[in-house]
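Morning!

As promised:
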Amino acid sequence: MQVVGGINTGLRKVPAWLVYLGGLGWAAYLFWLGLSNQLGPEPINTLERLYGDVAIKLLILGLAVTPLRKWPGLNLMKFRRAIGLTAFGFVLAHFMVFAILDVQTLERGWTEIVKRPYVTIGMAGFLLLIPLALTSNNLSVRKLGGAGWRKLHKLTYAAALLGAVHYLWLVKGFQIEPVVFTALIVGLLLTRIKWSRARAVFA
Amino acid sequence: MAYRWKNDLTQADVTPKSMFLNRRQLMGGAAGLGLTAAAGGARAQDALEPNTLEEIRSYNNFYEFGTGKEDPARNAGGMVIDPWTITVDGLVDNPGEYSLASLLDGLTEEERIYRFRCVEAWSMVVPWNGYELADILAKVGVKSEAKYVAFETTVQPDVMIGVQRRVIPFPYVEGLRLDEAMHPLTMLATGIYGEPMAKQNGAPIRLVVPWKYGFKSIKSIVRISLVEEEPPASWNIINPREYGFYSNVNPTVDHPRWSQASERKIGGGLFATRQDTLMFNGYEAEVASLYEGMDLNEFY
């Protein structure tokens, strides 16, 4: 516990804006790698995947904030909004690469979204995140009230699950990464279930 | 007998060895054999710009060596390709275990510059070196009852990380109808740009069927069987709804997970534009007759 306490003390000195800066810097760096021909022969697809990969990892980290505080006592609460918004930023970047660089035309993009279930699911997850990004500020928390805001932001759970299914569905054959991500997301969501109440319901 | 099909591109268009790694521009002239008259005409006049050897060797699907596009180049180094034995069996006059050299002995090697279209909606242009499959089949003698040709890829679990992880069932298998196999466009390739086939590209010998999606062009072949019934094909077994036995390039029949109407040619950078996919990958004039009377929506 002493280690966790030390980390918490250290983290108190780290400003949350560093998360935004780091995210922006990383996104720009990946884009520059694409521009400068360092993402292999098919940079569009690679960049699309890299952004999506960071996005789902940040979503998982965001979901881990509460359980981490409960059990090992690691306090990342002050970074949670920054993690969430940066995750949204990467989802947005992932979508922009898909829309502008990959499918290129509105018509083709629309066809992809309605015809391909894994794209449909990814889009649904993206849409769910938009109101969350728009209300990730103090003013919105005050306007919605703590309870209302928390209720709205439970949409993160659905968005993360949709992200996991989106990834599982798009790979060919058996691949380990989407399975691990899905397991992590499901595991983190399970920690939200209030077991005492669940038992009362099922008893 | 070889040379049953003639390239749009001639020997004069082939880049000197020293320039392999430089991008090059090849113009497709009027096709030989008067084939331009039909539907192939539009594409025959297009510029066909072969991908660089580096691109061809660094962006591959070869699930025996992992699922990432860079994995085969990284992981295929340990595959043993010498000595190489190909088992020829089934309905043939001369079955047996052929060494690579004995199977190809006396046949004519050609260069064929073909479009290569992956089912994942990306494409390349590859200058293959190899042999018409028809010549090889003539050599082993096809019995009249044979209707299909089945192929099998080597399995070397010790050096194949994808086989260890059981990404898909192995060995990888593929098949062609006999008339497809005998078609002059169909070849067994042993090199690219005049260089021996790289391991990640399917060394030492692989199938090339340019009017079908890339996964039909099975790599690192160790068995060729002439059979009477339609043979199993790996992706068709794994997911029959997504991958048909024929898997002809067809912009009007979509894969359930991505559109086949357009494709992006590898090597165009971050702002590469998409191009329309052509029926039978631009080889409609040559191969459409093979499928006359077949509903291509049903036999996809």
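Residues 20-45 of chain B have pLDDT under 50 and may be disordered.

Hope this helps with the figure draft.
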